[in-house]
Amino acid sequence: MADGDGNHLGHALYEPEGAVALRMVSRAEEFDWNDAVLLDRLRWAKEHRERYVEDSFSGACRLVHADADGFPGLAVDRYGEFLLVYKYAQAVDSYLDRLVPLLEQEFAPKGIYLQDRTRSVTAEDSSRRPPAALLAGKAAPPEFEVEEDGLKFIVDVTAPVSPGLFLDLRAGRRLLEGISKGRRVLNLFSFTGALALRAVRGGATDVTNVDAAARSHARCRQNLAASEMDPEACEALSGDVFKFLERFRQRERVFDLVVVDPPPFSTVKGTTFSALEHWNQLAEAVARVVAPGGEVLAVANAAGLTEEEFLGAVGEGCQNAGRSPRVIDECGLPPDFPVLAAFPEGKYLKVKLLSLG
């Protein structure tokens, strides 16, 4: 690449279609995107995880985090003895076939799967993504366990949307466990219950999960049982979050701690939620069911939602409900999700603990 005056800028992978036309791979004058470079970058990423990622969750972590590890358009997650490669750009095809044997060499997985995320889908279509494809090695069992901080979670590496455990929210789960003792916890958009398990182990007096999918509650019960906890430890409510919040308000049911971790987009029975547009409405509904002196653990993982916009929306919603929120703690991405200093937009995950006055 060169600027308009012919000055060298670097070497990049070209993407003829998609949001990003050029993905930088090196700023050097001379550069060859060969196997030696791939291996060197892979080993650098591996050494980073060995240094900063504790053994307690090494069986479920991100091994390669796209541009931050020198692999534009690609990420690699480890779930137990299997690797899951995410392809976010067609340009990845220029080096994927050469990378797979290097992944086998460095990590010795039983199998490697590919999840193609190059096609943009709507909230309604996200569940219709094809399952992950086996790239190398043996097929994974339909379900198997991985461990995080002594808790066990059942995952499916072929699942189109998520294996069942979001690795980037690890720090948020730890934060929740530390503040759950003696609290009545409401867990919204509960998915497979990873946050719920932390609340239960942290000593919550009761945990109520709300999710649109009944199958998510079933997986939560499986995860509780796998972690040697009561599979019925959580109240499970299936349906629209906003409708349940209104029901709680009408019945004057309140909670000491509300966990709010919505997907960037979701559709339930024709009603669409967008984090970019509806966080203020969600925050207002949540604030109305928080007990006096209670707290909200708010999570935003929408890359297009800045921290200022997120806090502004949450603040506006809480104030509309007559509550005054204060940020008393926060966390973000764990060390296996590094962020390039020159690309702060890569810090997409925001986790805020708010005290409501």
TrEMBL record:
GO terms for molecular function: methyltransferase activity. Gene3D superfamilies: RNA methyltransferase domain (HRMD) like (3.30.750.80), Vaccinia Virus protein VP39 (3.40.50.150). The keyword Transferase applies. It holds the Pfam family Methyltrans_SAM. Signal peptide: none annotated. Keywords: Methyltransferase, S-adenosyl-L-methionine, Transferase. One of its GO terms (biological process) is methylation. The keyword S-adenosyl-L-methionine applies. Residues 83-339 form the S-adenosylmethionine-dependent methyltransferase domain. This is S-adenosylmethionine-dependent methyltransferase domain-containing protein. It comes from Plesiocystis pacifica SIR-1. The lineage of its organism: Bacteria, Pseudomonadati, Myxococcota, Polyangia, Nannocystales.
